Amino acid sequence: MSKQWGGRFEKPVDKMVEMFTQSVSFDSRLAPYDIAASIAHAEMLGKQKIISRRDAAAIVKGLREILREIDAGKFRWDVSLEDVHTNIEAALVARIGEAGRRLHTARSRNDQVATDVRLWARDQVDCIIEKVRLLQHTLVRIAEQHVSTLLPGFTHLQHAQPVSLAHHLLAYFEMLQRDRQRFTEVRNRLNVLPLGSAALAGTPHPIDRLFVAKKLGFDRISENSMDAVSDRDFLIEICSCSALLMMHLSRFCEELIVWSSPEFGFVEIGDEFTTGSSIMPQKKNPDVAELIRGKTGRVYGSLMALLTVMKGLPLAYNRDMQEDKERAFDVVDTVENCLDVMTGMLANTRFCSDRMHAAAEQGFLEATDVADYLVAKGVAFREAHALVGRIVLFCVKNQKRLTELTLDEYRTFSPCFDDDVFPLLRLESVVNRRNTPGATGMRQVRRALQKAKKALE
Ligand code: ARG
């Protein structure tokens, strides 16, 4: 193939422009999808008698051989041939001659690239969905062992009320469940065939788009040729879902980082998933969690990049859109990587029940329950709240816990107190009294675990 398009040009393209416009250095990873789409297209052209059946068969055979060559790493990509599409077409012509020149009938690189990218995106979304599921599975496995492990629940990173560790972990399960749903919705929306839109207006050839859609596993064909070749909203949706997913992973990582500090000591991340320091021999750092937290910024950046690339583009195709690929590839690679590492790290993390329990005994986590106790005895909640506040202040000044006060001491604050307040102060009973749907009471948590397991089937 000539180094400049067809007969329109009298001079070859400037070397600098060739390097500037090429995309094969990164879009060659679309090759398997490009070839699959070309095979479906060629078969359709043959079936519709737009090209001869013999030419169609020769094209299909040639493309399969080229794919084998690419898979074996023997294919020579040529940047002067611009992109993955032209490289493969040129290789086909070199291999089978005249018939190869007929492949591009009734299509354009505009609907070709849109098709390739959708096929690629569909695979990646499936892969992400499965990896999220595996992470959820690991979470559930850990949560099952920690229904009765209690730790302080935090608000403002201050001790608030005791919760079951399983309940805490299942909060992330829920976030990931929504992430999985979001990706599933995106998959359904993106599984639409653009091919047949040609450059922007469709083609006069009697093509069969439904045939191609079926061959490639698309649920539907696009309704508008100009839209089909010129939107990349599906990539932006993937980036957006990825940004949310990364936000969730990042928050979890932040907790693991804080929890692994000696001040907390709630978790110990396994040696395989931590790193040392080049100078401080004692260090064991949660770098993996930090990197996941850090890579979140990179995914957000790509989302912004794609939104910005698209915002000013008139219909239909514009070359700006070539900028979608590196960002989308990077987002998907980053997310898949982070999910793998996160799952591995969690599976290798020890949750230190004793430290958590000890922490839950600090910070007057039972205070709300003492107030609720008074409410049950007829005291108005606001009054009970103020009264228990005074009790806590007394405890702070006298370095006592709520469980350590005597009944007489309690009675100096209110005559409503009786012996029956003490069993209420046990952490287990504080937790288990929260027995409404979605709460941390252990019966509810066990129910939530059953539901979670079902959702993973
Ligand atoms: N490499 C191009 C891209 O990624 C392929 C489509 C080129 N189409 C065109 N009209 N120049 O967008």
Structure, explained:
The structure is a single chain. With 457 residues, the protein is mainly alpha-helical. The protein folds into three domains: 15-105, Fumarase/aspartase (N-terminal domain) (Fumarase C, Chain B, domain 1); 111-149 and 161-198 and 223-349, Fumarase/aspartase (Central domain) (Fumarase C, Chain A, domain 2, Up-down Bundle), CATH 1.20.200.10; 359-456, Ribonucleotide Reductase Protein R1, domain 1. Helices cover 61% and strands 5% of the residues. The protein has helices spanning 15-21, 24-27, 31-47, 53-71, 84-96, 109-144, 165-190, 209-215, 225-230, 233-259, 287-310, 324-347, 353-360, 367-376, 381-398, 407-413, 421-424, 427-432, 442-456, and strands at 150-155, 158-164, 192-193, 220-221, 267-269, 349-351. The chain has a two-stranded antiparallel ribbon with strand order 1-2. A two-stranded parallel ribbon has the order 3-4. The mean pLDDT is 96.
Question: Which second-level CATH architecture of the largest domain applies?
Answer: Up-down Bundle
Distance between the termini: 52 Å
| Main beta-sheet annotation | 2 strands, antiparallel
State mean pLDDT (0 to 100 scale): 96
**Unreliable sequence segments:** none
Q: Please tally the β strands and state the result.
A: 6
Shape: elongated
